[in-house]
Amino acid sequence: MSTSRLLTRLSIWAGLWFAAFIWAVNMQLGQILPYTDCGSQLHWSAITSFFGAALAMAAGLVSWLAARNATRDSDAAQGNTDLGRTVGALSASIFTFALLMQGVAAIVLTGCEK
Amino acid sequence: MNGPPTAPDTRDADIERTRLPSVLAETWKTPVGFWGALVTVDHKIIGRRYIFTAFVFLAIGGVLAALMRIQLAQPEARLFGPDRYNQIFTMHGANMMFLFAVPVMEAVAVYLVPLMVGTRNIAFPRLNAFSYWIYLAGGVLLWTAFALDMGPDVGWFAYVPLSGPQYGAGKRADIWAQMITFTELSALAVAVELVVTIFKQRAPGMTLDRIPVFVWAMLVTSFLVIMAMPAIMIASTSLILDRLVGTHFFNPAEGGDALLWQHLFWFFGHPEVYIIFLPAAGMVSTMIEPFARRPAFGYLGLVMALIATGILAFGLWVHHMFVAGLPRLGDSFFTASSMAIAVPAGIQIFCWLATLWDGRPVFKTPLLFIIGFVVTFVIGGLTGVMVASVPFDTQVHDTYFVVAHFHYVLIGGAVFPLLGAVHYWFPKLTGRMMSERLGQWSFWLIIVGFNATFFPMHILGLEGMPRRIYTYQPDLPWHGLNLFISLSAVILIAGFLLFFINAIRSAHFGEVAPDNPWDAPTLEWASTSPPPSYNFAMIPVVSSLHPLWDDRETLPVAAGLRTDRRELVVTTLAGAEPQAREASPRNSIWPLWAAIATTIMLIWSIFSPWAVIWGSIPVAVALIGWFWPKGTPEDES
């Protein structure tokens, strides 16, 4: 598989794999950063969550747009591209939603609560 | 072993169509009798065996539930003392989760997935045979221990330090931990087989957007198994090491960490819920089409929901640990994910409702169970959102509210669809229809009995009744509801009894089923009921999501496979374009020998660490025998 074709496929599915990756990273940060947040004026957990939400949303957009430019030399390729685009964009929305809720929670709490 | 029935390298296209089935039957046959039962690698025989065994475990696990309800019907009942009661609720939970719920879903997939993707056998069929024997050995180990008063008594999640060397005397916790090894080994083997079957053995033309939803569900589930189960195997092995050789993984006094157990367990334990639920959701999406008489609404949304749920399932585990003292901000991240997972679940529910709304529903038993599932699972999902909230969970943690919640999710979300699936695919397995009248009776008894049994448990939980208590005092306000629950359980049990009677009776005397009794669109119905040993005389070629609806008269087929040896078509991952012809292994006794050797090693290792050293020798011998060339045509591949 050529590099450009691989990149196109990764882009079409970006909303799935990249948004999920961002969400997974933020889950881990959510276990690490409360200790920093507690001793700091900045809500680092909130900042990373909202930044992650923006990235996840962008990944969904990449999925949607990349599918437009993908070559569709057969019915099979078109079907797979449509699947990737829809699954990518919709799942990016769900991960964005989860990240936004995590950001809101990080604003409400200080990080010191046990 | 018989020689090949045709000359070497004979292709299916070279043989007359009328003669082809008998030639393939000879190549793919399982010997009759006891020997055949031991050596078979036919996914249908192993799948049926798996399903039957899992339902036996369901029945005996149900007997334990009935015993618990008898005990709790009255205050200060003395049917059991606390020790036996601890064993009973532990056995009930461990049995239902590890020996019934997960295996039965994989068992259905072992039977159906190769048929649904249009191939002749599952990938790694000998591993499939091995996985069944190992599963059976794990179940026999657990129940034999219980019969010998050595049954685990530490709850189905076996928290340390209760299960550790300090408080868990004897071998009870070890039995639990090693049963985990057996069942997870078996589950991992099946998961690998399913992933390879779905990725590489799909019929030509079955592109990603033409894969049946149940097959998608099993693909996601298999990845969940592969990623989640190692955590519990590490945990249970570490527990045995703590107990047997004095390591201190979970001992805080020596630098270990008791909470590590909870993290490892629930990193597996929460995805486990989706390992059970996602196959059920896939069954519903597949079964609903013939009964709504239209394609499932929102195929892409359903697939997305399965994948997103599978990923999010790994970010929920701490919601089982909200009272463990972790930082509240960290907890809130898990609350957010726990609530976010309701979105893909909701998408699926709305897709099913839209399918029924826009269809012309035929209210046969499978559809009744689907409707019962939707209603029950929504209630369970709503209480799930409630317990995802830290303040609420803190109040109801370890009460009957949680018991009610997870029974709504697991029975409503998995057992109801499974019962519908049994009615739906029964003709494919047996060639006979289940009785519709008995099916409808069992549905109503089960749905009424279930709700009358488990809904009041929410109230009991809110009234403060804790889980796992073997009795309670008469002055507590729980007696009336407990009596009502126990009486309601009689209705539920009657429903299940009727279901079992219907299944056994129909298998022998049921109306003979046509090949496609429901006019269903997926490939498993393109074969006879029950299917022949080779599944399809010619491999089907797929050009749509609903091949039997869109190519109703003549399903296109591919030719070119050898008939003198067991051969499959290997296709590309995304486009399902034919890539190679691959041999499929013949019957073999070696998976059974390997399973026996592994069983001896694992059970022995509960008592002595040297078992791992000496026990690995027969395992190695069995594996060498397994892979040694047998001089069959398949060796050439």
- Side-by-side strand order of the widest sheet of chain B: 1-2
- What amount of the residues of chain B lies in strands? under 5%
Rg of chain B, alpha carbons? 25 Å
User: What structural class do you assign from the helix and strand content of chain B?
Assistant: mainly alpha
In short:
Chain A is built from four helices and no strands. Chain A has 114 residues and is an all-alpha fold. At the A-B interface, helix 2 and helix 4 of A face helix 9 and helix 10 of B.
Fold and architecture overview:
- The complex is a heterodimer of chains A (114) and B (637).
- In chain A, α2 packs antiparallel against α3 and α2 packs parallel to α4 (75-108).
- Chain A is 83% helix and 0% strand.
- With 114 residues, chain A is mostly helical.
- Chain A has one domain (3-108).
- Chain A contains four helices and no strands.
- Chain B is 63% helix and 2% strand.
- In chain B, the strands form two sheets. A two-stranded antiparallel sheet of chain B has the order 1-2. Chain B has a two-stranded antiparallel ribbon with strand order 3-4.
- In chain B, β3 and β4 form a beta hairpin.
- In chain B, α8 (258-292) packs across α14 and α15 runs antiparallel to α16.
- At the A-B interface, α2 and α4 of A face α9 and α10 of B.
